[in-house]
Amino acid sequence: MKSILKKIGCILVGSTVLSASITAAYALEKYGNINEFIDDDLIKNGNPDVYIVVGENAAALDVTSANKISAKIGTLTYSETIIEDESTVEYQIIGESESIDLLDGTDKLDSAGTEKSWILVTSADDDYADHFDDEEGNSFSYSGFSEADQTKSLGHFGYLLEVGDIDPENHFESDDDTTEIVFVRITDSNKNAGFQTFDIGKDMVYASIVYPNQVSAFKLTKDLKEGYEIPFLGKKYRIVQIDEDDGIIYLGTASYDGTLEQGNYISSGEYQVVIGEILESGDEYSVEISILRNGNIIKEHTEILRSDKSFSVIAGDLGVTVHDVWTNAAADTGYADITICKSLTELKLGEEYVNNWEVRAITNTGGTIDFLKTYEDNTVGIALVYSGSDIEGINDGDRIKIADYVNLVFDDEDDLDKMVAEFKAERTVTTGSTGGTVISKSGEVPKIIMDSEIELDEADKNLILIGGPVANKLTKELQNEGKIDIDNESPATASLIEGAANGNNVLVIAGGDRYSTESAVLSLINLI
């Protein structure tokens, strides 16, 4: 096991990634009916009928090649779950917050009133917004907004989304919540006997924040984690990956949540995710994962895990989050608890996501909120901060669009002594099938074993040997018997020896050096 871990450690440093489309023509010398072996000997009754054998002391490149072949063969095995067509249902979501009359009594913003500027707050549940209301004694203080006289909650805004469980599949054993919140600062502007306008400037923020279960105090908010389900602009997403160094947060739509045994794969549309070997050594685990698109490997990754057994991998428009890994009591079979997400959204901190709205990380420093262009350890949410031209001279009938999502609406209700402000929004939602049959695929990849773990006369499956006689002792055994002829001048070669493994067939993939062997492997993958 230690030798395998050593090889995997080498792969972390020196492995190469196969391109998304393996279409190059590699020169391959074939001996025997290779195509018949591929058609008849790789799969039996829907399961792999072959072992892939690498030398115990082979180069890391040979181990990588074995993973490539294993992953490609795995795509030939699958089970299907078919969901019949369903009708679609279309409905509208309409929401509005509480309102405030900016020219009424103590709410007056003009020179005759007691307040000259307010920060209005609304959220999916009024508890979150009310927490910032001055009447609760907490207020809203953000260095990016000019100081306001008062923070006012407009309560519940049903259009905004709250996720009542950020961990729906219990990966973290957490029942924490996430909610959308909107902050807008308004000041009085032009004032005369019959005309009143208002300014916002740049003071608008859309936010999605993680809270403890049934807690609405911002000072107790929780840090973001990969795998959490959060709302973002009215939709539920999983956090696929947080790249703290580059300041990027990747969101995706979950297409699979569950446990996958090593040597198996799950298909999501055009992608296949393969869990390779999971090995345990003391307090250390190693996990191999491959992502394919239409059967071609586009990403390979090996992770060495210690106390934190979670990591994520992104390839193309697909993201995989591994939450936990473990092995059975005999430590010979590993399992991975994973989430697969598709349709990835990249949020780059400090850059626009929608026109005039920049992505920021929401931080909680001792209960003080901030919206930063860098990712910090105390990041508790994701924000979009307005960065366009100052918004001034707001009057009756104006609608201020917030992150292309919700509106702040102004209406004097045909009364010169009124100016009512409230948040409003509506959208049409379609649920159900889009008319196509949905097929879920899962399958198993062939096992990769060391040449020290198997004998030719004891094999119970067909074999694919990776490497020449120097790298693989089974290849050397066949060479000594005169069944193949490979030396350090040999080109990329595929040699089929029928019945050589206890009556099972053996395919040798090798070349004069490790690079010729890799070329032979890529040629074989093109044939499968």
Q: Mind explaining what this structure looks like?
A:
The chain has helices spanning 2-14, 34-40, 60-74, 126-132, 473-480, 514-527; strands at residues 29-31, 43-44, 47-48, 50-54, 79-83, 89-101, 117-123, 150-156, 162-163, 177-192, 195-199, 204-211, 229-232, 235-243, 248-261, 264-268, 271-281, 284-293, 296-305, 311-315, 318-327, 334-348, 352-354, 357-365, 368-372, 379-386, 399-402, 406-411, 420-431, 438-444, 448-450, 462-466, 493-501, 504-510. The protein contains six helices and 34 strands. It folds into three domains: 1-77 and 445-528, 3-Layer(aba) Sandwich (Rossmann fold); 92-247 and 349-431, no CATH class; 252-341, Tick-borne Encephalitis virus Glycoprotein, domain 1 (Sandwich). Mean pLDDT is 83; it is low at 1-25, 106-115 and 433-440. Strand 16 (264-268) and strand 17 form a beta hairpin. Helix 1 (2-14) packs across helix 3 (60-74) and helix 3 (60-74) packs parallel to helix 6 (514-527). It is mostly beta strands. It starts with a helix and ends with a helix. Strands 7, 8, 9, 10, 11, 12, 23, 24, 25 and 26 form a ten-stranded mixed β-sheet that branches. InterPro entries: S_layer_C (IPR022651), S_layer_central (IPR022650), S_layer_MJ (IPR006454).
